[in-house]
UniProtKB/TrEMBL annotation:
Domain annotation Band: ranges: 53-217
Name of the molecule in the record: Membrane protein
Database matches in InterPro entries: Band_7, Band_7/SPFH_dom_sf
Superkingdom to which the source organism belongs: Bacteria
Pfam families in the record: Band_7
Keywords carried by this UniProt record: Membrane, Transmembrane, Transmembrane helix
Lineage: Bacteria, Bacillati, Bacillota, Bacilli, Bacillales
Amino acid sequence: MLKEKELSYLNGFAGLLFIVLIGVAGGYLISLQSTLPLIVGIIACAIAFILLTGLTIVQPNQARVLTFFGRYLGVIRKSGFYLSIPFSTRKAVSLRVRNFNSAKLKVNDVNGNPIEIATVVVFSVVDSAAALFEVDEYETFVEIQSETALRHVASKYAYDQPDGTGFSLRGNTEEIALELTEELQKRLEIAGVKVIESRLTHLAYSTEIASAMLQRQQAEAIIAAREKIVDGAVTMVQMAIERLQSDNVVELDDERKAAMINNLLVAVVADRSAQPVINTSSLY
């Protein structure tokens, strides 16, 4: 596997000045119309032309990867104007931080439920040689591997855990993002790419089961709310009976306690306002 290595280079302005001086000297020797000066002048102009092909400009957050007739030479990372090896091929590789937004993928979770999921991947190139020579079009490689890793991670967990226990895509987004980042880093290391962060941007049930799952969630919410209401109602009834007995307000036998508990539970648990019947006669 190719690794990035720094290439030696010269200051471009000094190199350009040197090339100009050689070219001027060569032109002057050629103008003398003498055999030896003519030959030296032609050689000097040829050298100036050859050196001229070695001038290169490196933009900020960019690397120039140099190859010489198919042989990898090295990379220039520092921005500026430089004189490098003549006749070398110089390819620019961006080192800037970039985002990749995946398309919405349809995946089956661990329970077999079809879900829609998408992610955004923040990455940058840290090894320009690997990015250019180890994979074919590293940007396409990042896109394909990102979608593959997302499918793999999504298929390992359930979309949701109704009981609130266990690991789920919806309930553990931070852990899912961390696992996805680690999975991507392993896959993209060969391309010289560093994954800075990955986050889920879309997570939902697929359209064909979305309505059924919504009804299930609504039913679970209603059941959970009813459980809390019943627990509270039982507690209130217990408190009312204990308070009546401790204050000696009224003596209740088992039958009247049962009737009182029934009335209180109906009044508290019912989803509509209770309409009591007032008894104006004797309690007995």
